[in-house]
Design brief:
The structure is a homodimer of 657-residue chains. Chain A is built from 18 helices and 18 strands. With 657 residues, chain A is of the alpha/beta class. The mean pLDDT of chain A is 97. In chain A, strand 14 (333-338), helix 9 (353-356) and strand 15 form a beta-alpha-beta unit. In chain A, strands 7-10-11-12-13-14-15-16 form an eight-stranded parallel beta barrel. Chain A has a six-stranded mixed β-sheet with strand order 2-1-3-5-4-6, with helices on one face. Chain A has a two-stranded antiparallel ribbon with strand order 8-9. The A-B interface holds A 307-308, 310, 509-512, 516, 524-528, 635-636, 639, 642-646, 656-657 and B 307-308, 310, 509-512, 516, 524-528, 635-636, 639, 642-646, 656-657.
């Protein structure tokens, strides 16, 4: 198979060729084998020599050992002149320690004596793959699935490289199939797919990754042949217990299930008058004997709204559906909450459930797959967004009240919790469609493991690993990455109003694309104003936040400007903090956004000769597309606003009529 | 097979049961066999007795004979007390005469002594089926194809009933495959599909129908294995000659080809720097020895326009592409011209080529398939539209200058010319999806044969044949039909601006659906005005018409109001002839249109018990849908206009914000 090595692209270290290392450990097993293999690959490339096994004269000794005082995934690295000790409470921690060691060696950040100790911030660091059994990927922009093809499970060399890549950034759980569990996917639970799943789970286990599946809540009917899937029915309970026993006893290191229920047409407990808690807890009972976990998604709303209904507000619904259930979920259930209340727009307020739930395990769900952020044809480095989300103060009255405090369990005692991302991989040769999109996958893993890293730190790590440490390369690509989310936000739908996108496939501008549809996402632009009022005078969404957030969001004057049109209906002549009108602000940002992309393309072009030619050309081509497409965004949004208002750009730039 | 008999739904004639008839003729052959079969079916149902063959005492004698002074498709019926003579110059004319006889018997319009003579107005009366080899139908709203399935040609009992149905209204040519000739369709020319095509052509011939195929201009490459399809290349010419010889010599009554070239991605002579005339004439040479005809479509335009380009005008392009070729086409080439310059919108001006071309055979192309007119889920009886088109005075300076005079050949000597319709059949049990849509198919055939019939006459014929002659049934359904096109026009895109429809599938309202797309169909609505200027001050489209039309269309004050927004950009505060503003006119017509549909539904409901229950229920269900969907049209258009202008309805009706 021919595919790139992404950030595991080990390359010679200048001045260190022939440097000898040896590896010493009393541990053994699949994880240790993988550590050896990684060290072999890396050192052969970096130093021209694989490390010796066992103590060797004249070689730097890498000593791997367990320290039972530490967590299984934590590690400590102590480097002196001739020795590098890596200690952990478990083999997984040793693996993570080795990856950090290699990262530091490769990027030149292991100079002198070093002592560092790391404990993963989040207990669960999970990849959600929306891969379908036929081989397609829902919201996939990097080719087809490498997990499934023609309704079969694929296990091959790429499975191993996938696991290795994910482990290298600390991912410890993967849900391999789409949350919409259709066609043959419900049968993943059964004997039919058992053999390859066991094989895959073994590979995953060797990299510290637990295999999870998405399940279909109707499985007792669809797969089990029962006449009901009522979570309170004895037959149904027995069926799930037996199905889970069979799975957990046979599939090594199996983790549990991700569930999308009563959402966008997926079946759920509502069909039987049961609550989400009834449904989730029944499953939790079935998986508890094996240490299994049920991850239950909170993405529940009415997707059959009439656009003429101006009362119903989709943004309110996830909170309303779950807040009353706080405290009712079993301890091995985790609610997985999207970062915002709607759906992965380029800008949304942080979901009010994070501050609302106090007695419920929570996970944050972000989207590394660029569904609404350019589909890996635009560069859009999302770590600045993730950083903001994690740092958001929910003001929920707890001692530690940021999102990262709540999902990591810092405030609630590190129970079942963590962070998940809908990821962006596919069978494209470069894994992520756009080469630069790999920074998002890398960064997601890194920030999930160390939730205090900055986007800049992560960017520089990733650039150095992927392209080497040439300072211009580092600087230009860091600039491109750091400019990209703000630029995308500028030329996208303004000020968090979102959804000005082509329906269904969500690519390209379309101001009215969802405006008269059933999805509850309306901008309601008229000649003089734009937006929906979600204050206490409108749909009341702002009141789902604790004070002082509720009051802050409730008023145009105190609402953060970047969220202005999420919370308020605002006149086009409203004066922004900049002194410009709202309309002029929209024009300005759209011109700026497209200009920023031209700058990004120029920054890339300046690296010609410093980047491997094929990799250079791939990114150049996508940036050229982005230059044109960002203009299309600019022009369509600006023209729409101009036609609506008939007020020209104050700076006289070209707006098409 | 289980499908309805549509208008061939013969039923007992009150007070005439047991009435005896006999048929006498010296003619024989397939057409005569079909005449016998039709008389048997009809008389058994109407009189309870099949006609005797040969002179029979006490029976009304139906005498069928040839009169070589008449045209082959003309007929004369002379009815006296005991004798009905039907004479024609050909067996096809006898068949048409018999269908007219039966129609009159069934509808009670053959009282007393009758003498009538009919000559078809148009030499060619052609059905265009956009059926694909896989069995789908492009713009088909009545199920799947009954000509093709899984890349095979289907010939069965329904093929015969299809031919019979078409012959009963005078259709004499059918193009059975889509003008977009893709997948396996180019191979229809070849041996691969020869056997079933011969079988089908024989059935067609028995009903006076010539079989035509759509061809792919790239066939010499795609099918013939040549390295070019250049119409001036000797190899290509030879290939077409041989292919046509093979087809015409083996497929009985084969008519020729319909060609979509250099249009919407279909291949054509432009690829080799040749003209449409080069392409068409080369094919015409190849089919001439067999009396074959080449029908060449004029639907040629740039479908890759940038919405920001406000100079290019799709409406101008068909005329520009063909007017310079007038006189250059062979005499067995016919240019097939859509009724309007764009694409089958509910209202368009008549295509300027009709008045422009003076030395070229022309056919009018209309669309019976309701692509933009409700897709057979809305009732939209199109004969009033066809009537207007046929009667349109082109002012081209000829003695007979209406569209019907030009396409029938009345002005140019009845050469190769006529009328074609993209038809609305499929394998649904009722043939046309909506039972009432059969009136459009029926009416197309009837008006093509007799181009002076009124929509009301045709409606009453069709109703009587389909549902019987109960006066309330006749009256209510006639009202529904006659209200339906005006109603649809009212709640559709206003005043011929068109295109406020969902992209691709063309169903349901979407004001901006095509606004920023590549198809050249822009309304350019802004706060104060709507429409594109196609006058001499704008794109100049109005100047494609002869005077006085050019001047009439050129000015807002003289432009017919129903075409106002096709030709002009008009301020919303423009005062219409009614005294209302343009904006208020839009509001009014949209409220009226939806109200009209409620009236139509009530008219149908009043017929409960008078219509066969299943047929009643089918139409009732579709009308109930139309009631709701016309409100969706009303509300989306009105809301869009309201948001744009912020001027409320003067009559205080509900417009959603």
């Amino acid at each position: 198979m021919d595919y790139t090595k992404v950030w595991l692209n080990y390359r010679p270290i200048e001045g260190a060729q022939g440097k000898k290392h040896c590896v010493c450990t009393r541990e053994s097993g699949a994880v240790i084998d993988n550590i050896y293999a990684e060290l072999d690959t890396a050192f052969a490339a970096m130093y021209g020599e694989k490390p010796a096994r066992g103590l060797t004269d004249g070689a730097v000794k890498i000593d791997l050992f367990l320290d039972k005082t530490m967590g299984k995934e934590s590690y400590r690295i102590e480097k002196s002149d001739r020795t590098i000790d890596i200690a952990s409470g478990g083999q997984e921690g040793l693996l993570y320690g080795v990856f950090e060691l290699l990262r530091r060696m490769q990027t030149g950040t292991l100079e002198g004596n070093v002592r560092l100790e790391k404990k993963p911030s989040n207990p669960l660091r999970m990849a959600n793959h929306w891969d379908n059994m036929e081989g397609t990927i829902e919201r996939g922009y990097s080719g087809m699935s490498f997990f499934f093809e023609n309704n079969e499970v694929i296990v091959n060399e790429r499975t191993r490289d996938y696991a290795r890549m994910m482990a290298s950034v600390g991912i410890n759980a993967s849900v391999i199939n789409n949350v919409n569990v259709r066609t043959t996917a419900p049968w993943l639970l059964t004997e039919r797919y058992r053999a390859p799943l066991i094989e895959m789970a073994k590979i995953f286990a060797g990299y510290g990754i637990r295999l999870f599946l998405s399940l279909n809540f109707a499985s007792p009917v669809r797969v089990g042949g029962l006449d009901t899937a009522d979570p309170c029915d004895e037959k149904v309970i027995a069926w799930w217990k037996e199905t889970c026993r069979d799975l957990f006893e046979n599939v090594p290191n199996f983790g549990g299930f991700l569930v999308k229920a009563d959402s966008e047409g997926e079946f759920g407990p509502f069909a039987y008058g049961r609550t989400h808690a009834d449904g989730a807890n029944m499953l939790a009972d079935a998986v508890r004997p094996y240490g299994g976990i049920i991850v239950w998604r909170c993405f529940v709303y009415n997707c059959q709204q009439d656009w003429r209904d101006n009362v119903t507000d989709r943004a309110c619904q996830s909170y309303i559906n779950f807040i009353g259930l706080d405290g009712q979920f079993a301890d091995n259930v985790i609610l997985q909450i999207k970062n915002g209340p709607v759906d992965f727009q380029v800008r949304e307020p942080v979901h009010p459930l994070f501050g609302g739930l106090k007695h419920t395990n929570m996970m944050l769900e972000v989207q590394v797959a660029q569904e609404y952020t350019g589909q890996q044809r635009h560069v859009c480095y999302l770590l600045p967004e993730f950083r903001e989300i994690l740092d958001f103060k929910t003001c929920n009255g707890e001692k530690y009240d940021t999102v990262k405090d709540l999902i990591s369990g810092k405030n609630y005692g590190y129970k079942n919790c963590g962070i998940a991302a809908v990821v962006n991989t596919g069978n494209d040769a470069n894994w992520t469609g756009h080469d630069l999109a790999a920074a998002n996958l890398y960064g997601f893993g890194r920030i999930a493991f160390e939730d205090t890293l900055t986007p800049e730190q992560i960017a520089r790590e990733w650039i150095a690993l992927t392209y080497g440490t040439d300072e211009q390369v580092m600087e230009n690509i860091e600039k491109i990455l750091m400019m990209s989310w703000p630029a995308y936000e500028k030329y996208n739908a303004p000020l968090a109003i979102g959804w000005m996108v082509n329906p269904s496939y969500h690519f390209g501008p379309n101001v009215d694309g969802y405006e008269y549809d059933r999805w509850g996402t309306y901008h309601r632009i008229s000649h003089s104003a734009i937006g929906r009022d979600r204050s206490s005078r409108g749909t009341g969404y702002a009141q789902q936040y604790p004070e002082p957030l509720a009051s802050m969001y409730n008023e145009i004057d105190t609402c953060p400007e970047e969220l202005l049109l999420f919370f308020h209906r605002v006149r086009f002549d409203h004066v922004m903090k900049s002194g410009e009108t709202l309309l002029q602000h929209i024009y300005d940002t759209h011109f700026e956004g497209a200009e920023d992309v031209e700058k990004m393309a120029a920054l890339w072009d300046a690296l010609e000769g410093k980047i491997e030619p094929e990799a250079f050309a791939r990114v150049k081509e996508r940036l050229a597309f982005q230059v044109e497409h960002s203009k299309e965004w600019r022009d369509r949004i600006n023209t729409y606003m101009y036609r609506m208002t008939e007020i020209p750009d104050a700076k006289g730039r070209k707006i098409y009529e």
